[in-house]
Amino acid sequence: DDGTCRRCPPHCDICSDDRTCFKCTFLYLMLNGACRASCPMEYYEDMEEGRCGQCHPTCGSCSGPLEDDCETCSSFSPKLYKGSCLKDCPTGTYYEITAMECQECHQTCKSCIGPDPNQCSQCEKGLVLDPNTLLCGVQVGS
């Protein structure tokens, strides 16, 4: 206003005033006009653009802006499967609580409660579930 130069905010190379930055110094990332050393949850580090980019709304944390760039999930779509966050695990998978993601059932199971062949709840076509062992196999003589 009065023709005097003023210092930009910390870690900022180009600014309009002492609060609004347009370009951050090397290795700092822009978020809402401020420069940060790292991005908060629900944002990813876009090093090419030098900014924090917003994750897809289903992600809690991510590596990019797309629906399948999720690393963790939001509470609305809590189940991670192949980088995407879903409300429920897809058919042929089960929810592994410690890994916090959907994992594949054994190849004989159509649906399951765990990864082992004796954790099937439904069998693939042509196979029959043994109610005692919970294994899927071919039906033996009727």
TrEMBL record:
Gene3D superfamilies: Hormone Receptor, Insulin-like Growth Factor Receptor 1, Chain A, domain 2. Residues 18-120 form the Growth factor receptor domain. It comes from Nothobranchius rachovii. The gene is CABZ01072954.1. This is Growth factor receptor domain-containing protein. SUPFAM superfamilies: Growth factor receptor domain. Keywords: Glycoprotein. The lineage of its organism: Eukaryota, Metazoa, Chordata, Craniata, Vertebrata.
